[in-house]
Amino acid sequence: MSDLNETAPLRVLAAHEPHPLETFNESAVSDYFIICEHAGRRIPQSLGTMGLSETDLKRHIAWDIGALSVAKKLSGLLNAPLYTQRYSRLVCDCNRQPDVATFAPEVSEGTEVPANRNLSASARNMRANEIFWPFHNAVSAALDERTMIGRKTRLVTIHSFTPVFLGKSRPWEIGILFNRDETLSPAMLDWFRKNTDLCVGSNQPYAVSDATDYAVPVHGEKRGIPCVEIEIRNDLIASETDAGEWADLVARGLVAAEPQL
Asked: Angle, to 10 degrees, between the axis of helix 67-78 and the axis of helix 240-257?
């Protein structure tokens, strides 16, 4: 019997498949820098369907539904560069450290992911080396360049969440997420609570931490950059029109928060 490793792919991404990074408005000169780590649901050809149905691959378990639309519109409104990641978070979650279990989840929202079952260390590293690190290294390089030329930076990362999680309804319409940042995140939270009638979550439905997140702790806090993670309930941004209205609201919140930084 032949060793299964002999038939294992040498790479996750085929030569014809795109780089994980897709940028928009890259040369924009705004102080804001936007990232969207869960923008796409693309699955590398080598992984097939990951053992999932097409219906599952269109669900929120595969990507942040609506987040890319909001991020692109926000990029335009603020004249800010936007760095997005094309591949599904089921392949590798680009907002997790590569050594945590949820980087390539065996189960997501109660759904088993066969392609991630008993994933070897080498397979995990391959995904990190071809998707995670190329994306984050590009973000790091862009932020390094901004620092080098003395450009001020406010880091904004855009996500979305489900209205119901494992059978439990979520009342929040938007969440302002943070960890150590005491500048942009609190100012945004204060603005949304004072100027809208939305149900605004403070570190809800998720909380940012070094153990559960990558972008804010690494790209923002370790650099001393004012930063905020914004979560919008995905049923509220299902259309391009709705995404545009939410992007406008977020842009107004960011601009209003600026004098307080």
From this structure: 50
Q: What angle do CA 220, 137, 234 make, to 5 degrees?
A: 60
Give this prediction's pTM: 0.94
Structural domains in the chain? Answer: 4-260 (3.40.630.40)
Q: For residue 230, give the nearest of 128, 168, 154, 167 by alpha carbon.
A: 154
Tokens for 85, please give them.
């990641």
What are the backbone angles phi and psi of residue 42, rounded to the nearest 5°? -65, 140
218 vs 139: CA distance, rounded Å: 11
Paired tokens of 69: 């639309």
3-state class (DSSP) for residue 137? helix
Q: What is the pLDDT of residues 170-183, one digit of tens each?
A: 999 999 999 999 89
Confidence of residue 2 (pLDDT cuts 50, 70, 90): very low
Burial of 29 (0-12, 13-18, 19+ CB in 10 A): exposed
Identify which of 234, 228, 244 has the alpha carbon closest to the alpha carbon of residue 61: 234
Calpha distance 145→30 (Å, rounded): 14
Residue 226 CB neighbours (<10 A): 24
* Torsional sign, CA 223, 226, 231, 236: negative
